[in-house]
Amino acid sequence: MDHNSIQTKKRCRLWTTLGFVVMLGTGHAYGESALVSEYSVSLSLAQQAAAAAVAKCQHDGYRVSAAVVDAGGNIKALLRADGAGPHTQDSSFKKAYTAASLRRSTNELAALIVKIPEIQALRDMNDRILILGGGLPIVIEGKVVGGIGVGGAPGAHLDEACARAGLTRIGAALPQTQHEK
Fold this sequence. Notes:
The chain is about 45% helix and about 15% strand. It is of the alpha+beta class and about 180 residues long.
């Protein structure tokens, strides 16, 4: 064999060894899956939930925005009723994000940070968190698959009522209210 062939074989062995070491480090050599399966709300359900929330608020005389995010907090649907303030888009998204991320009603979280001052830092985790009533996690078959948020009604309880209408429309589990607990 000539010198170039020997060098090529050495390089191939080195890359093969490095590849095996990388496989060991990632767990693939032991049969672990490289993929994680997660559940998330579909575009169709997100659109239906947002539309039902806006319709409920319109019926009640409120101009709102409704946002739905997937399990990762990514926007899936955002509807702004005619005449709703421009700020309602941000607040509805942030409420939906907060509910999906923290897996709780934003109204419940708002009550908790008053009762337990040590957790007030939740508000400052990132710039997308908004702990103000009107956001609910979307729970289907026992799994949090997203969040819905409504902003613009004259009261957090009214925003939440419209968000609940969105959950009802898509058959998602309704969270218990403070009175039901």
